[in-house]
Amino acid sequence: MPSTARAGRSAALPISERRLALTLGIGCALAILWVLAASYYLVFHDEALARFVSRQSAMQYAYEERLGALQRALDRAAAERQTARGGVESRLAALAERQDLIEKRQGLLSGLGGAAAQIDVPPAPAPVSEAPRVQKPFPTPELRFGGDDRAEADPGPGARVARLETALDRIGEAQSRALAGVARQAERSAERFRDLIARTGLSPARFDAPKEGVGGPLVPLAGDAFERALTEARRQIEEETHLRRVAAALPFRQPLPGEITFSSGFGARLDPFTRGYALHTGLDMRAATGAPVHATAAGRVTAAEYAGGYGNMVEVDHGRGLVTRYAHLSAAAVSVGQRVEAGSVIGLAGSTGRSTGSHLHYETRIDGEPVDPQRFLRAGAQLVFAD
Where are any strands of DSSP class E within the chain? Predict the structure, then answer.
């Protein structure tokens, strides 16, 4: 059979030929494998290379993206730092303006105390000679924007500026409180003087300056609360100053020094000569002959002469219809038209005219009508005079 024949021939081949055939078979197999590998490499090389390039590109993009994010963060931090620097500088400029304003207001507050008063009502309102002192928060501390260790330990310019702003706020509040205190003191003092003047039977309005024609539309006052409070405080101070001057012009002082002894009061009494009832138009005060007699308020002498029952008499006009008379003097020390101040010696006590002995007859007249001088003397007893 043919197959049997081939097998027989194969078996009949020599060993060398069989080895050659095996080698050729192996070589063919290797060649086929190489061809297959080469074909695979050629087929899939571009895809692998593309994947590798893609991975490298992704890594590079991620790296560049990270670098970009870091750069943007740096730029943002630089911008924020520049903005913070500008904000701090603008806040410092505003603080400097506020400090200038506070210093100006300090000067206004210090000036509200004004000149010392000539008279006062106990308890005397404490003059405001100096408002709470302004502690300057400047010079401004050095601002550091670097990144060294000292700057990190520093609380930062924003925090320091905030502390300065807080300090100025406290000073402003203290000034407002001081201003309110000045206004209250002036108001209380004005009310005391107003009450004091009213006790004499006089109206404070009597001493107001004649009002001039004024008018116009109502325009509310602008400005902040401090300015409005300052305007009100000045109004109160002006009112208090006016009433203080009115009180200083009234005959509140004693015409004789020391403790006064009255020998006859104001009003109806038995006349020492007729022994009938008559009006006594003043007060009789015991005084030795030659004792100095003082003007009880500033004014101008309108009489210094012998005047019948008054004897030697000095009359002083204090303005606004208010007059005082000093009678039975042994001598006058002033002349008509002379200006005298409160406490000036205008004559010497005596017993001239219709008198039974050495004494001083003292009168106060309002619009020509005699009034009880005790109104003024009792009110004056509550005053403290600065001679």
Answer: 119-120, 262-264, 267-270, 277-280, 283-286, 292-294, 299-306, 312-319, 322-329, 331-332, 339-340, 345-348, 359-366, 369-371, 384-385
Query: Does residue 288 contact residue 368 with C-beta atoms inside 8 Å?
Result: no
Cα torsion 270, 275, 278, 284 to 10°: value is -50
314-335: per-residue pLDDT in tens?
Answer: 999 998 899 999 999 999 999 9
First to last CA, the chain: 169
Q: Are 366 and 294 in contact (CB under 8 A)?
A: no
Domains of the chain with bracketed CATH: 13-206+221-249 (no CATH), 262-374 (2.70.70.10)
Give dist(CA 61, CA 68) in Å, integer: 10
Torsion of CA 329, 335, 339, 343, to 10 degrees: -20
Strands, E assignment, 198-291:
262-264, 267-270, 277-280, 283-286
Report which of 252, 251, 194, 208 is spatially closest to residue 383, judged by C-alpha positions: 252
pLDDT confidence of residue 45: 63
Q: Could you read off the pLDDT of 28-55 as tens digits, one per residue?
A: 777 777 777 777 666 666 666 667 667 7
